[in-house]
TrEMBL record:
Protein's UniProt name: DUF1801 domain-containing protein
Residue ranges occupied by any YdhG-like domain in the UniProt entry: 20-113
InterPro entries assigned: YdeI_bac, YdhG-like
Coiled coil start-end: none
Origin species: Sediminicola luteus
Amino acid sequence: MDKSEKIEAFYSKEHHFKDAIVLLRSLAKQTELEETLKWGAPVYTIDNKNVLGIMAFKEHFGLWFFNGVFLKDPKGVLENAQEGKTKAMRHWKFSSIEEIDEKAVIQYMEEAIVNQKKGKVLQKEKSSSLKMPDLLKEGLESNPEANKQFQLLTPYKQKEYYEYISTAKQEKTKLTRLEKSMALILQGIGLNDAYRK
């Protein structure tokens, strides 16, 4: 099944919000956005940049705006996608087709397109102030071979170890993470190398 068939399958699947998401699709198609499929759901792009997506869940359906943080949101309908995890994405949730204000939806879509064309993208915060946790420092100082291997890792991979150990809330967890980290470091392996293959 090619991408366009998968998109059609998404919209034709029996779901209690089927008519509503088909309506949102028809509104998106009135704009200059291009329809594609990512993560198993329809995503609408401009110049290959994600602008918005259409979603359907058990309790609600709606739109997600990838850089929704920049939308003016005059109706006050946008919610942070995942508090604390996503900084830029915003959701507009509906629980019935009657809640869809077509004119407003198009205005939000058009504003999202303009923002994307202007290059309004939330920049990731640089956390260069992150320093080596004392526990890791002590572990490396007491093991010259691990220290040597650690110095050979890229700064990015070193930072992953800093974060992994320092974000543990309990001392016991920090020690467990240190033990796991030291075993990987001795092999010259980055913390997340297994996922990068």
